[in-house]
Amino acid sequence: MKITFYGQSCFGIEFSGKHIVTDPFITGNELAKDIDLETIKADYILVSHGHQDHIYDLEALAKRTGATVIAAWEVYNWILAKGVENAHPMNAGGKWKFDFGTVRCVVAQHSSSFPDGTYAGNPLGYVVYNDSEAFYFAGDTALTYDMKLIPMMCPKLTCALLPIGDNFTMDVEQAVIASDFIECDEIIGCHYDTFGFIEIADKEAAKSAFSAKGKRLNLIEIGSSIEF
Ligand code: NI
Ligand code: MN
């Protein structure tokens, strides 16, 4: 799979020949000002929760591309009400087979509301897998013991996209523990540096915290890609 970083928790992931975009937040992100939302391909959009820094460009991206939005029941209804036609509702614990593989919906420990403050259901994480590859998109979450269930329920993870910015989510040290819980050695960090509360001053120290455990923290420059 090929993973391109668009800032915050937004990735473009080529998986089984399809384009999956996570948590579209580009035009509202100063760090992603060189990314052109209009050129991003999407067949599916995975949405972790309703906070602004995860859905800012959801409506625009879904309408332009016709992508299927995969999200919690409440986010699904919200995006349908905005006129998006293709969407699939899920909730924690469930899985569904799509044409690119299976999506297993897992618990995230966070909150979830829309920009106007209304209820957006529970925040979610997703494990996506086919016969040969698997990734975990954690969304915004604390470190949780439930992460230990992931290797019991899903195939071996190729890589995991974990928030590391602290304050609203896990920090680096907790993400190292999470990577043990999910039994994954290739971590892609996200949800850091976008605004003041989540800046990571020492990136090398963050990488060292993972390498000390035999793991790798990949910090992808916005607009750049990594392949597994
Ligand atoms: Ni959030
Ligand atoms: Mn967030």
Structure write-up:
Helix content is 19%, strand content 28%. With 228 residues, the protein is of the alpha/beta class. It has a single domain, classed as 4-Layer Sandwich (Metallo-beta-lactamase, Chain A), CATH 3.60.15.10. The strands form 2 sheets. It has a 7-stranded mixed sheet with strand order 6-5-4-3-2-1-14, covered by helices on one side. Strands 7-8-9-10-11-12-13 form a 7-stranded mixed sheet. Helix 3 links the parallel strand 5 and strand 6. Bound molecules: nickel (II) ion and manganese (II) ion. The site of nickel (II) ion has 5 residues, from loops.
Labels describing this entry:
228 residues; alpha/beta; Metallo-beta-lactamase, Chain A; 6 helices; 14 strands; 19% helix; binds nickel (II) ion; binds manganese (II) ion
Which architecture per CATH?
A: 4-Layer Sandwich
Class per helix and strand makeup: alpha/beta
- The gross shape turns out to be globular
Spatial strand order of the main sheet: 6-5-4-3-2-1-14
**CATH topology assignment:** Metallo-beta-lactamase, Chain A
Query: Can you count the helices?
Result: 6
Order of helices and strands: EEEEHHEHEEEEEHEHEHEE
Q: What amount of the residues lies in strands? A: 25-35%
Give a count of the beta strands, DSSP E runs of length 2 or more: 14
